[in-house]
């Protein structure tokens, strides 16, 4: 199944030249893509901010999350808290049972600690495959990416063509925000957020693959901390072009 609306690079460039703020971007998305657009949420700090701004613009915006089967309890808790606070239904995606069973049977429960190849396989089966199925039904998807998160994201724009997902429009409404701005917005608006943030987890993934960061460490240092190097992604945000 192909996405119905296909955007050209020229259209994306025009959007990036005309739209500067988070609110403007999300208003455009609401006017032009809803309901065939959704926010992917792992329920970190960025997601709390984007969801709040989205729902102030359009209370019927759609949200989805990936239940990998290995999430921290705190993440399940905040999913329920957010659903009740905003009176919304969050679409929960699950990996294919047989794919998970075959992987665990062949490589073990904690295969990800043994090699980068194994870790990427686990991310692919538990996260990327269910995500891909969802994106095939949409014209656009909204993220909580910020430029300062990793080196891979330094050149990301507010609107972009996601060539890794069939050229779907990818919207990064808080791409220019700093970590300080995120924290300030959460406090100022008294938003519900994942309690792991107060325990030193500025970036939250699966429970066995995420640890608290130490003082002075990069905010993504707690993700796959046993791997060497800074190019640590799960595959959801890798653009083959």
TrEMBL record:
Q: What's the cofactor?
A: [4Fe-4S] cluster
InterPro entries, alphabetized = APS_reductase, PAPS/APS_Rdtase, PAPS_reduct_dom, Rossmann-like_a/b/a_fold
Q: Which Pfam families match?
A: PAPS_reduct
GO MF entry, a single one? metal ion binding
Q: What role is this protein assigned?
A: Catalyzes the formation of sulfite from adenosine 5'-phosphosulfate (APS) using thioredoxin as an electron donor.
Q: What is this protein called?
A: Adenosine 5'-phosphosulfate reductase
From what organism does this protein derive?
Nitrosopumilus zosterae
In the record, biological process GO terms are:
cysteine biosynthetic process; sulfate assimilation, phosphoadenylyl sulfate reduction by phosphoadenylyl-sulfate reductase (thioredoxin)
* EC numbers: 1.8.4.10
Q: Which UniProt keywords apply?
A: Cytoplasm, Iron, Iron-sulfur, Metal-binding, Oxidoreductase
Tell me which residues make up the Phosphoadenosine phosphosulphate reductase domain. Answer: 38-212
Catalytic activities: [thioredoxin]-disulfide + sulfite + AMP + 2 H(+) = adenosine 5'-phosphosulfate + [thioredoxin]-dithiol
Q: Does the keyword Amino-acid biosynthesis apply?
A: no
Q: In which pathway does it act?
A: Sulfur metabolism; hydrogen sulfide biosynthesis; sulfite from sulfate
